[in-house]
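Lab notebook, design round three. We kept the backbone fixed and only want residue identities now. Task for the bench partner: fill in a sequence for the structure below.
Input structure tokens:
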């Protein structure tokens, strides 16, 4: 299936590279590919051979600014393109790109996000971004946002969302349940590439707070990020320590987490890091859950979401699937790209 609407890609990390990999097989047309250093912008479309070259060199560690127009020149070219053409702006950065997104929307472009930051700013900014596709921001490739919007659009009422929405934290707690010390489980997760370069980013829970806020706002709750009740698995202050020093400090938590897990086991429960969204607000933290719960059965880096609604009350709706990695995030992006392409192509 060909996407007739041209694309511009902001960000060329692992997720952006995964999307560029799909360009040939899906016949995606890119007018621009940019990262923080610059990029390549071509209103006539970047040839597939050039895209392949950019992807190859980027994987070698070469910045796009060295392969195309550097810095402000690429930004100016992008802004001019937004005025001259119509298409989809795909943002896979981890930066506050709201000025670009607002400019694109005002110029009649569609916007697709894997980037959460624009969606967790002030509530009014979220409302300005209500038409964008943001499936990939929560649950990666699981069609969670699409499902919630379909439920609400059909007149259902969502009462409670409970989600194991961090493949990294799910893996850690499953390892601890199997007898691994928490500090060693973190090292294992790092070795497998499941964590950010500094694991304090994962253990702070900040990313889960953002995901919970996005879900709440999708339900129409006008909450702000500071209203999310967050229990980190490790102190956010650890971000300021060298990685090895941070990992050494985690050993002090091994016994406490083991004690909590053993206490839960005696009650037929286990521990999972859960995001809860309801009309009462958003909470994210370590919770005791029934061992028969879908939340407890998640394997590896799997994400699981349990949705209780007026219609799905006695038997809640359960969504599950891979919640980490560039391929699954790319799957979420493509859901929105094809959907918005059909809309803009009319």
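Proposed sequence:
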């Amino acid at each position: 299936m060909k996407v007739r609407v041209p694309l511009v890609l902001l960000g060329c990390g692992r997720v952006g590279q995964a999307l560029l990999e799909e360009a040939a097989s899906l016949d995606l047309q890119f007018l621009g590919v940019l990262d923080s250093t610059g990029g390549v912008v071509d209103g006539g479309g970047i040839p597939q051979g050039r895209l392949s070259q950019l992807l190859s060199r980027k994987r070698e560690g070469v910045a796009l600014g060295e392969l195309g127009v550097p810095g402000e020149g690429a930004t100016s070219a992008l802004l001019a393109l937004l005025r001259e053409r119509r298409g989809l702006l795909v943002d896979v950065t981890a930066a506050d790109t709201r000025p670009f997104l607002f400019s694109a929307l005002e110029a009649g472009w569609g916007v697709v996000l894997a980037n959460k930051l624009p969606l967790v700013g002030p509530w009014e900014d979220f409302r300005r971004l209500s038409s964008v596709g943001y499936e990939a921001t929560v649950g990666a490739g699981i069609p969670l946002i699409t499902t919630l919007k379909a439920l609400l659009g059909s007149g259902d009422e969502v009462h409670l969302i409970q989600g194991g929405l961090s493949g990294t934290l799910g893996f850690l707690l499953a390892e601890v349940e199997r007898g691994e010390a928490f500090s060693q489980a973190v090292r294992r997760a790092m070795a497998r590439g499941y964590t950010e370069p500094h694991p304090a980013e994962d253990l702070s829970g900040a990313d889960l707070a953002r995901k919970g806020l996005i879900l709440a706002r999708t339900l129409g709750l006008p909450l702000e990020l500071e209203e999310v009740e967050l229990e980190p698995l490790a102190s956010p202050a650890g971000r300021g320590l060298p990685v090895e020093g941070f990992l050494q400090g985690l050993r002090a938590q091994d016994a406490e987490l083991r004690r909590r897990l053993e206490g839960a086991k005696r009650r037929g429960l286990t521990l999972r890091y859960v995001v809860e969204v309801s009309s009462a607000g958003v909470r994210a933290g370590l919770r005791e859950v029934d061992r028969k719960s879908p939340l407890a059965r998640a394997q590896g880096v799997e994400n699981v979401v349990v949705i209780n609604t007026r219609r799905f009350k006695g038997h809640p709706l359960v969504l599950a699937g891979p919640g980490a990695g560039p391929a699954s995030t790319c799957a979420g992006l493509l859901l929105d790209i094809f959907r918005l392409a059909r809309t803009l192509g009319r």
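Keep this in mind before ordering anything: The chain has two domains: 7-140+327-344, 145-323.
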